[in-house]
Amino acid sequence: MDLALSVLYTKIYKKDGPGWTRVIMKIEKEGFQNKKGFFWNSLGSLMYGANSFLMLALVSRVGTVEQAGYFGIAFTTAQILYIVGLFGVPHYQMTDYAGKYKFLDYVHAVRFSCLLMVFGCIGTILGFHFTGSKASYTVCLTILMLLNVVGELYQSLFFQKNRLDLSGSALFYRTLYPLLFFCIILWATHRVIAALFIQILANLFLTIYYALRVAPQFIPEKTEYQVSGQAKKLLGECFPLFVSLFLMNIVMNASKYGIELMMDDLAQGYYNMIFMPAQVINLCSQFLFKPLLRRYAELLSERQNRTFWILLLRQILLIAVLTCICCAGAYSLGTPLLSLLYQKDISALRIHLALVVLGGGIFAVCQLYYYVFVILRRQKRIMAIYLCIAAIAVPMTAVCVHSIGLMGAVLAFVIIHLILALCYAVDLYAVLRRGSCA
């Protein structure tokens, strides 16, 4: 406890007695809890951000460039199906601080969305004519993502109950240990399917642990076996959010599917190698603003728009600085380091890599705007924005990839997300100017 707080503690205690002691102790405890939560959230986000990067890196290192292409498009497909499994429910749950819906409403909603996820996997494999290793990787990675959907349900519960430390640590451990098993098995056997199978088992064990041993203390006893019958209503509220998230991932990965349809697996492999740092930038940047979501909600509910804008602009500036540093590093050192990591020569893709990292930073800003709109409960506005952007992204990506190949895919990725960020900023300004935030 610092000097100022010590003085305040002494004065209050002498004046008002032991009752205030409990108040001060509560303040101290909350301060410690916030620091602990920030630490674990940061660690969990970093671990999750590194997960896909390390998996692709190891597959690229032990296999061929084409095999990296198979794994990359399978992983991308599984991530999009992960969005189908989430259905926007955990994102709504995280910001449901008033407890509008019971936990079992979220459970039943996720059961339905996981079923959609399974059918989506089958449809994607048949629709894109995935065969052999590409189909096998897609199935295994989809199962892994399905377990992550279940895990996200409990992590969002911890977040909702203001236990960011538990939410972050659960994400960290549920990512770390399965990843270690994947890396060890793949390095020892060079068999991707075997490594994925062990990774799935490890994830299943940890998910069951958090569901049965940790989560029950946060679920009120009276609602543990009672369903409010509002799961359908919850899905209805989350539907615009789901469509937005689905389109967000389609927009983000449009370049990959453009390459899948118009180029070969060799090009897909190289593109996935340079694309992974962008995802790491985006995921790592989220630990900068996720701990402040509650603060954003408070400022908006109290209509403190000026303070809100100051906080938002500070966060955007922080992301911009991080992105600039990473772009400089990617241009000067990125390709030699990635070539060493992947054991493949990507020296000709230096400019491509720097631009992809820039696009990842812009996407991170878009994510920040997205969470603000979720807090405002403006899911339909998010959906409208992404419908417009998706309508632009598909033809733009097709033209760019067809015209200039890999560089076209990279430029489409950057330009599309720049347009998206500008649309978000203009629309948010319009919403707050009209004073329509509830």
UniProtKB/TrEMBL annotation:
This is Lipopolysaccharide biosynthesis protein. InterPro entries: Poly_Biosynth_Transport (IPR050833), Polysacc_synth (IPR002797). It comes from the Bacteria. It is found in: Cell membrane. Pfam families: Polysacc_synt. It comes from Anaerotruncus colihominis. The keyword Methyltransferase does not apply. The chain crosses the membrane at residues 38-58, 70-89, 109-130, 136-159, 171-188, 194-212, 233-250, 270-289, 309-331, 351-372, 384-404, 410-432. It is a multi-pass membrane protein. Keywords: Cell membrane, Membrane, Transmembrane, Transmembrane helix. One of its GO terms (cellular component) is plasma membrane.
